[in-house]
């Protein structure tokens, strides 16, 4: 009888000990997300051909202001063990509209635009890919959250198509200065009162692409069991960019396609801030605000003429900015 009681006691003790043992953490954890980035953008570039008189510095500046860009975004994060992770984030959308401002400068106007035109942006888009690997740097006390670090790569491409041309201003120098001394005919930069070109006509296409190395910090802090705040700061110390600009109304008579190409290096930064609500342990929703910014350090502008010749001059500016509200849902398993 005593043997039976001892066996039962040992079995009960073993069962209790097994029940009290912590459940080992999952080796692989996956989080999938779908969201949107409701953003506006500004991209601009300018070059300096002032050594080819009578042009100013800058010689020409094109500014693309777009809006109503509702980007669809997909994210996948795979965590291996308690520390390491990899993440891929892709997004894309057509751009709903905007305006191109094209400024040209002559030396006599002292830095003020000698000619300014506007065109409407339509039929264009934005695409991007972020790929990162990272590790846990720190855990906050009482299981409140974490701080992660990462390194990775960003591909960011934007295309703007501008339709129609509306002349906004034409200075006295723009109307009286011959900008093509090799042609015996008088060729002014602009003619006052010139009639606009219809918005049905494609005037300029511009495709700007940034290839960036990135490193950043990412954090999540739990305010409550169902609510947390999120934040990330990413530095892009090395960018390589390309830019192709086609002046469709001047192809054949003056330029090739593309009419101008640009190449250079730069730097940039990205930042996100937001809040996440946990509907269940696996399902959550979040909202936030995001800013992406890239800028040139050095670059070259090259024109491709219709007769096969080309001319290269320094770029003075190349910059892209995109920002706006983010929202999404996430599921983990």
Layout of secondary structure:
Blueprint: H1 2-20, E1 28-47, E2 55-80, E3 84-95, E4 97-106, E5 115-121, E6 124-139, E7 145-170, H2 172-176, E8 197-224, E9 227-247, E10 255-278, E11 283-305, E12 310-332
Antiparallel strand pairs: 1-2, 1-12, 2-3, 2-4, 3-6, 4-5, 5-7, 6-7, 7-8, 8-9, 9-10, 10-11, 11-12
Describe this structure in words.
By secondary structure, the protein is mainly beta. Strands 1, 2, 3, 4, 5, 6, 7, 8, 9, 10, 11 and 12 form a twelve-stranded antiparallel β-sheet that branches. The chain contains two helices and twelve strands; from the N terminus they run H-E-E-E-E-E-E-E-H-E-E-E-E-E. The chain has one domain (25-332): Lipocalin (Beta Barrel), CATH 2.40.128.90.
Report the sheet with the most strands, covering strand number, pairing sense and barrel closure.
12 strands, antiparallel
Counting DSSP E segments of at least 2 residues, the number of strands comes to 12
- Please write the CATH class name: Mainly Beta
Q: Give the structural class.
A: mainly beta
**Total helical elements:** 2
pLDDT below 50 for ≥5 consecutive residues: which ranges?
1-23
Radius of gyration (Å): 28 Å
What string gives the helices and strands in order?
Answer: HEEEEEEEHEEEEE
Mean pLDDT: 92
How many domains? The number is: 1
Task: List its salient traits.
single chain, 333 residues, mainly beta, Lipocalin, 12 strands, elongated, disordered N terminus
